[in-house]
Amino acid sequence: MTPMPRPLLVFLTLALTLPPCRADWPGFLGPTRDGQSAETGLNWAWPKDGPPVAWSKEVGRGWAGPVVAGGRLVLFHRVGDEEVVECLDPATGKGVWAFKYPTRYRDDFGFDDGPRSTPLIAGDRVFTLGANGDLHAIDLATGAKLWGRNLLADYKADKGFFGVATSPTIAGGKLLVNVGGKGAGVVAFDPATGKEAWKATDDPAGYSSPAVAEVGGRVLAVFLTRNGLVALEPETGKVRYTHPWRPRIRESVNAATPLVWKGDIFLTVSYGTGAVLLRPKGDELEEVWANDKSLSCQYNSPVRVGDFLYGCHGRVDARAVELRCVEWATGAVKWSVPRAEATTLIAVDGSLLGLTEAGELIRFDADPAGYKERARAVVLTGPVRAAPALADGRLFARDGGKLVCVKLK
């Protein structure tokens, strides 16, 4: 049999991994898990009070972002002592179905007792991971439970400082999670049954969510665990690359999602460790640049536009955040806005949209020449930790008590 050309194999693998509809936002950080939206023709002429809100809805607790696919909006939140997976009509906010189960999770620091992990819509299924490690597969059309298991119990994993928060992904036909157990740092599950397909590494779980991209000529699942980088083959679990990258102090998190571009991998954390750009060289990775002065992100994942990165530098909990533009190849800081709010960014239609922790929606130019803000409007009360979703001209965003649908088209 003639081997399949590698470019075609890569294309087919990604086609099976990513959703086909460009208007969908099916998981954490969008269809390509890097904060990029393919939408165009958005309305940037906002009224004085900001873009119109199509509808709003009172919701429960949690930091899990909304997701949209196949004409369905899925919200994951906590109401009372139940974690609730709720399906809504994205145009109206009306309920379609709800799946509920009891939870015993209590936040050690009293921040929030709700789920942190953004759901994943893949085909006709929704996958959710609760704050106490409850992993579920749910039928998107009906809300029926297809299977469920508790990862902390099954793999003797620790819940971490703030509960389980990594958002799963699908690659190579497997559902992948940074579980964090001994011998089960990363675990692959059969999406149809929930049965374990393979497990690899001893890496404890971080708060980062994995990316899927081509690295070193192969499509790999790229994780930033509690210990650092793990890039592995999604079909088999074979580890291809590792790179230690974590803070020296225990009271810390690795939370930003890795970014991959042209085969290079960008990692960023805070707590005196900083950022690193890694380049495959055979079976090893070499550091192109690394420092704690360019773009050290504590929670929010940066986005790339062209040859430049945009993101939040500094400690959110120390109120020392700067919004920055940094050159990908060198780490050179092109501009910096001091005393900024922690901001989740989406690159779309030639601009950058940002949702700040205070609940403000901002739009500014993706321009390394300088920060040029074009609009700002209050859409939520805050604090806002959940990542928003942008689908079919609508921005869906939530805080600790309300979900809003903002019309951008």
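The above is record 1. Record 2 follows with the same two-line structure.
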Amino acid sequence: MKEAIEQVLKQLEELSVSSQKDVEEARVRFLGKKGCVTALMEQFRTVPAEMKREYGQKLNELKKTVTARIEALKEQAEATAVQLAPKQDLSMPGDPLEPGSRHPVSIVRQEIVDIFRKFGYDVAEGPEIEDDWHVFEALNFPPNHPAREMQDTFFVSTGHLNPLLLRTHTSSVQVRTMESQPLPIRVICPGRVFRNEAISARAHCIFHQVEGLYIDKDVTFADLKQAILLFAREMFGPDTEIRMRPSYFPFTEPSAEVDVSCNICHGKGCNICKGTGWLEIMGCGMVDPNVLEASGIDSKQYSGFAFGMGVERIAMLKWQVNDLRHYFENDMRFLREFTTATEV
């Protein structure tokens, strides 16, 4: 046993390593399950009882010595590896970063906001999870209106008088504005909305809207038409014309759909406008007196108009994108096309 311990110490003194791999091999050879130190520990059971104390101390000292030597060699190998590693020149330029771009929906939304800001409109925002009152009841939706059914709207909670839902339009922000802000009111309400619709090239369950609201004394339909015409010419070009077709919305009376002259064929007819020369961009109308009264506004003294447009629809017309789903797929090939639009 004594000679075996001395032999291990001699091997330890002669041990030489040049890499971290050599250090690990040495550790296994001395301290591994089949290492020489471990083997001596196993043999200790055969030592006579009167000699166990002496040899037990020597074995413990041997293990400590081997462990310390292995640790020292490990630190030495690590330091050598650092010295031999290739030096980095911190003055060299880093890897080039590819410039990003804003999302096309964000670009168009900001353009719309900037246009109406020039007309004196403030920006109002509200929660995406709303209650029935602000989304439907205060906007003159009848109790049996299809939009209040689950097949058209994503409800968060039901079973009570004022259920929560994902807002189907940003008109709910208009209601909150009428309830909280002093008159006159001139705001636009951009935001994300949700409807339970099948996803296709022309429809999605998530999309973005910008709605506008102007309430003051003596506001007329002529004011509404002029505001939309100014917006259309700012967005699509100074030669753009609009037409308004009678329509119906629960919260406006009278109501209209707004078309703009096709900026591709300039009214001659093409596949984008389906040969009509016109492209639908928004709905609008004079705010229904019931909506004003529901928000505490005297409809005999005040009147107003409201309008709403889909941001994706405006973006599709602006850049001739033929599939709404492109805006939600995060395809970098598609998004990179709008880098120049962001820079402009």
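The chain has two domains: 2-83, 104-343.
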